[in-house]
Amino acid sequence: MEYTIKVHLAYNVWANEQFARVLRSVDDVVYFEDTKSSFPSMAKTVVHIWGAQDIWLRRMKGENPGKLLSADSENKDAPLDGMVQSANELLHFAESKDNTFLRQTYSYRSMKGDPFEDTYEATMFHVVNHSTYHRGQLTTMLRQAGVTALAATDLIHYLRM
Question: Whole-model pTM?
């Protein structure tokens, strides 16, 4: 199989689905409790993954979003659904484009308003890498909370399916 950005994005959807399944089974107290990490809880880490996927997709579509998503701190399902849905939307966006488009450069502004240019494909690789990084943090938080039923979400596991 040729490894492409579309395969990489499909992996991201699968890995987010695996984490959403595990996190839905975690007690709400554990999911929302403060934990030392980049973000102070599993809940806030999920919202960050969702928000980052969403903001990069919006930038690639030519929008200039001013801020990241935020979510109700009492609701578990909406952010978990959003994390999976935004990964699916990135995949569908890539699937609707050809390789020539994906290698084109586009312009956008950072949250601070600074101008940047990147290729669509490089941005998509970045988004998956970013989500993978934070899923690793979720793994640590889950293990510290005593959760042992974790799915293997390494890329190689996805490619072997």
Answer: 0.95
